Amino acid sequence: MAVEVEHADQAPGTDRQVVLGSFALVRRMPPDPAERPGYLVAEAIGQAGSPGAGRAAIARCSPRTPGNPLDEMRLQEVAQTLTTLAHPNLVPVLEAGFLTTAVYAIEPRPDGEPIAVRMKSGPQPPIQVAQWAGDIAAALASVHAAGLAHGRVTPAVIWIDQRNRALLGGLVPTSWPVSPDTQDPWRLPEGEQDGAAGDQFQLATTVACLLTGRLPASPAGKTQGDELPGVAERVAAVVKRGMARDSEKRFPTVVAFAEALAVAVQQTGEDLVAGVWEALSRNDRAMASLMIDLAERCIPSHADLPLLRMRLNGDLHPADLSSLAGGDSGASVALPVGARRFELTITTNTVDRAHLDSSVLANLLMPRTSHQPRAARANPWLPLMTGLFGGVILLALLMAVAFAYT
């Protein structure tokens, strides 16, 4: 296998071309610290005459020490199971198997980009990270249901497709043992044992990387969730539990972890929205600006956010208000809110141009903090009845005085 790995980056057609199943290796892929240690990862292409002829693929190959026949039977069983797994968020395994000195798996190259490309732009929005975590957790659940584990859930095997879904690849028949001295930040605290709890630890570590925008720096065994700068406390608590050193303290399943993460992000966003209203009520614009930025990252579709941004910025252009200055009842105007426009309708009989400024409109958009009790609401008939009753009393008094003098 050493000779094959050495020449794996040669083009097809050379004397030393490497063939795995019905795919030929084309070139090595750039090294990735999040990939499985000891694995050769290469671009591959389907050979002519095979069902996948001309198809672009990714091959993962590791050395193998020949074992007893029982081990080979188990390896063959796992390889066959991998090719039958199917899930919308799982990159399928086209072929998997083993040779005398190597174990390999081949998957199609997804239409999209590696999630590591997204990470280069910095921390990702929590709501987006929670969605991707849910996608990966669903894919892992299908793997676990088959009695298998992934064993290396890192950004190196996650892709984002054209519909912004997260796809999980990197399934292999078995993991090559790694030396305990290897400085691998993704190595499990419990060692090299593959299992559902280990997949959860690495998924939580990947989530931490996406939220903070940085790869884990601590070597094997250390809890890398101790520090999550810029992550809300409620969200950080979920991530830290998923990365607990003791596997018994993690969530029961990866799906439970992803669901808890989604709830934490949603609740954090709601708290931030309430905090923005409170900050605006005391005219703390700096705090309101910070909190609304965070809220837009957590729950960007919240109905209050356009109003909050408008109330905060007051960025209404005079030209946008020209249709309201004439006093038309029910006039509608499109107000800019960042990159969006918000349709606002004001129903009034008289609009005074002198008072129709951004602060007045912003006050109109503030939510009502108190409601008048039903019993105290004005009755439109009460003034009329009071006037009539008063008139009758006054007339009676005048008649009594006139009768007394006569």
Topology:
Blueprint: H1 2-6, E1 19-20, E2 23-28, E3 40-46, E4 56-63, H2 69-82, E5 95-98, E6 102-108, E7 112-114, H3 115-119, H4 126-145, E8 158-161, E9 166-168, H5 196-212, H6 233-242, H7 254-281, H8 285-298, H9 305-313, H10 322-325, E10 331-337, E11 340-346, H11 358-364, H12 382-405
Antiparallel strand pairs: 1-2, 2-3, 3-4, 4-6, 5-6, 7-8, 8-9, 10-11
> Uncertain regions: pLDDT < 50 for 5+ in a row?
1-14, 219-225, 315-377
Radius of gyration: 33 Å
Kindly give the count of domains. Answer: 2
Q: What structural class should be given to the helix and strand makeup? A: alpha+beta
* Mean pLDDT score: 77
Helix-strand pattern: HEEEEHEEEHHEEHHHHHHEEHH
CATH fold title of the largest domain = Transferase(Phosphotransferase), domain 1
CATH architecture of the largest domain: Orthogonal Bundle
Strand content is 5-15%
Question: How many strands?
Answer: 11
**CATH superfamily membership of the largest domain, which one?**
Transferase(Phosphotransferase) domain 1
Termini separation: 133 Å
Question: What summary fits the major beta sheet?
Answer: 6 strands, antiparallel
Q: In which order are the strands of the major sheet placed?
A: 1-2-3-4-6-5
Helix content: 25-40%
CATH C-level label of the largest domain: Mainly Alpha
Number of helices: 12
